[in-house]
Design a protein that fits this description.
The protein is an alpha/beta fold. 37% of the residues lie in helices and 22% in strands.
């Protein structure tokens, strides 16, 4: 007799679903006794299933209410993750607060977040910068993280000229730029499984660069590193720039694995989330100084090396944990019933 298949429901946007639910993941999951079942977010969740577990990344209060009701009606369905926990990452104004409150063993490493603040609608940008001692350059980005393309747009503001050009609607977040050697570390957390990868990032910005900015420059909209290639007709210069960035990434030393794992575990416990990643940078001036600059819920996990194996291991962890919980509850109920029977016999 074959073992039962466990049903993992997933509710994702069409774009996220196409990227994440690949044949390689489906096949690997089936080999381990797991069926991945698509959930239609346009239909009532209560009418779909049954599920052993659901994973989701859908925005909106209606969906959140349905997930919360599912947890009430079917407490044995594992929901990854609770909507109220996910909501904390939908505001850049507060998402990094959790980092500063972490108590983790760090060895020689120190951890922090860049100086940042929210510019409210009633505030004047220049006045706010002078009052708070904010320094150029800084990154400006929307407060709200709602899955839209706009919420992922970021601006690098070099000086007052760039500040005057900035058309980002208030309120928005201003985060001081920290030189970090052109390398960012993306740390993926999938339950207890942690993976850290190196990626190219914004290059260091020297005082000379800031002082030599052309009068018409000062603001840069960026979504990826390619936006930072110098404006030049010289293909040799562009190729040299790309080659230099790739070399920085290749030669960059990874942060200590114990530090990264402790940080990921600390964030998981503090946030109550099991599927997230965070962006970690290392201060160019101090090789032991690290900053968390962003935290994302259910990011592009398909970009993570061996994501299929990591997720199937995670799914097996979840259903195994659920099975043990159900067996324990059944045993406790049996013991209670046995105790009641013995008690009734003594009363006869």
């Amino acid at each position: 007799m074959s073992s039962p298949m466990y049903r993992i429901g997933y509710a994702l946007s069409p774009k996220d679903g196409q990227r994440f639910i690949q044949n390689s993941l489906i096949n690997h999951a089936k080999q381990r006794g797991i069926d991945l079942i698509e959930i239609d977010p346009t239909k009532p969740l209560a009418q779909q299933g049954p599920f052993d577990c659901i994973i989701h990344k859908i925005y909106g209060s209606d969906w959140n209410n349905q997930v919360q009701q599912l947890s009430v009606d079917h407490p044995n369905v594992v929901v990854i993750d609770p909507p109220e926990a996910i909501d904390h990452l939908h505001s850049r104004a507060s998402m990094l607060d959790v980092v500063t409150s972490l108590k983790i063993p760090q060895g020689n490493q120190t951890l922090g977040v860049p100086n940042q603040r929210v510019l409210e609608e009633s505030e004047n940008i220049m006045d706010s910068i002078e009052e708070k001692g904010f320094k150029f350059p800084f990154i400006a980005k929307q407060v709200s993280v709602d899955g839209s393309a706009k919420s992922h747009e970021m601006f690098l503001v070099f000086n007052e000229i760039g500040l005057k050009k900035l058309k980002l609607k208030k309120p928005f977040v201003m985060q001081e730029f920290v030189n970090h050697g052109g390398v960012i570390f993306k740390v993926y957390a999938v339950g207890d499984h942690v993976k850290c990868v190196k990626r190219k990032s914004l290059p260091d910005i020297s005082e000379g660069t800031l002082n030599n900015m052309a009068p018409d420059e000062g603001l840069l909209l960026f979504k990826q590193i390619s936006n930072l290639i110098a404006k030049s007709d010289s293909s040799d210069q562009v190729e040299g720039y790309i080659s230099g960035v790739e070399k920085l990434v290749e030669e960059a030393e990874m942060p200590p694995s114990e530090f990264v794992t402790a940080l990921a575990n600390g964030l998981r416990e503090a946030m109550g989330l099991r599927l997230f990643n965070f962006d970690l940078i290392r201060d160019s001036r101090d090789g032991n100084r690290y900053f968390v600059i962003d935290i994302n819920y259910f990011p592009g996990f398909a970009k993570m090396p061996d994501y299929e194996s990591v997720f199937v291991d995670f799914f097996c962890d979840v259903v195994g944990e659920k099975r043990r919980k159900v067996e324990l509850e059944a045993k406790e109920n049996q013991e209670v019933r046995g105790g009641e029977i013995e008690e009734s016999k003594t009363l006869v």
